[in-house]
Amino acid sequence: MSKFDPIFEVMLKRMLDKTEVPVAIAILKKKKTDREISEETGIELEKVKVILKKLVEMEFATCFIKRTSRGDVRRWKINYETLDRIHDERLKNMGKEAKKRVKEIDELFEEATSELIETEMYPIIELLFKEQLTDEEISEKLMIKLNLVRRVLYILEENDLAEYDKEVDAKGWYFYRWRLRREMAKQYLTEKRKELLDKLLERYAYETSEMLFSCYSGICPVYNFKDALEHNFICPMCGERLEQYDNEERLKELKGRIERLKEQI
User: Fold this and answer.
1) Structure pTM?
2) Which pLDDT score is estimated for 70?
3) Is domain 7-78 given the CATH code 1.10.10.10 in the classification?
4) Residue 111 has what DSSP assignment?
5) Do the two domains 7-78 and 83-180 of this chain adopt the same fold?
6) Which of 108, 179, 223, 241 is deepest in the core (most CB within 10 A)?
């Protein structure tokens, strides 16, 4: 279920006409009657009704009707589902192009981050290529939900690909200004490739030292001799007979991946 996010106010201000914004903001967090909206915004009641009708047609607002002894009471509220949908569609459209531009600027950094964050989050990377910003500034500039921005920044920081400066504002509140550590991309990739290389070498050693058996279903796992013997050479998953597994092609594939990784390291 969709819920309120502070970025919705920024989205409404940028997407709606100036005359529509006050009405939309008035019903952003709480259901209100058209009369309450008129009193809060100072806009004439009839004009409020016209704006509300337009917001409903655009699927930006929803009307809730409550039946009372004095008649029906209509209350209005912003439709979070619509704002969520617009937010997510924008991210998808922005993300692919931003990822391409990031790759053009710094291919190593794009490769280092490609398995850490979703494509939709690359506008954050691209923006931080240009300037050092707080999480709230990034959220507002890109119209991306603050919790998503923070998640990306924390992932980058945990992997030594971003860092922040702690500062204090005029009121004594701490805030954090983020920047990327592009110089760390090569080291990050090398460490990850070494980890993968160790796993592949371990797997290669296992497959060359063990007699393996399979039912050749393409779904069930491959068993070593001990496990196959324990199950009387019958696959415990599908019930088919286990035959000696020919892993020659698999070994060639593993060896090729190992050689390529060694060259990259």
Assistant:
1) 0.79
2) 79
3) yes
4) H
5) yes
6) 223
> Cα 198 vs. chain centroid, distance in angstroms?
29
Q: What is the pLDDT of residue 1?
A: 61
Token pair of 239 as six digits: 């019930």
The per-residue pLDDT for 52 is: 96
Dist. CA 240–CA 244, nearest whole Å: 13
Q: Domain segments of the chain: what residues? A: 7-78, 83-180, 186-264
Q: Are 83 and 16 in contact (CB under 8 A)?
A: no
DSSP 59: T
Residue 68 corresponds to which tokens in the numbers above? Answer: 């009372």
Q: Which two tokens stand for residue 54?
A: 């337009």
* Cα three-residue angle 59-60-61, rounded to 5 degrees: 95
- Cα-flanking dihedrals φ and ψ of residue 185, to 5°? -60, -45
What stretches of 169-231 adopt beta strand conformation (E)? 174-180, 212-214, 223-224
Mean pLDDT by 10 residues, the chain (265 residues): 84 94 95 95 96 95 88 92 94 94 96 95 97 96 96 97 94 94 96 94 94 94 95 95 94 94 87
Beta strands in the chain (DSSP E): 61-68, 71-78, 133-134, 162-168, 174-180, 212-214, 223-224, 243-244
pLDDT at residue number 102: 96
Is the CATH number 1.10.10.10 carried by domain 83-180?
Answer: yes
CB 152 within 8 A of CB 126: no
**32-39 own/partner pairs: CB under 8 Å, 24+ apart:** 32/75, 32/76, 32/77, 33/73, 33/74, 33/75, 33/76, 34/74, 34/76, 37/76
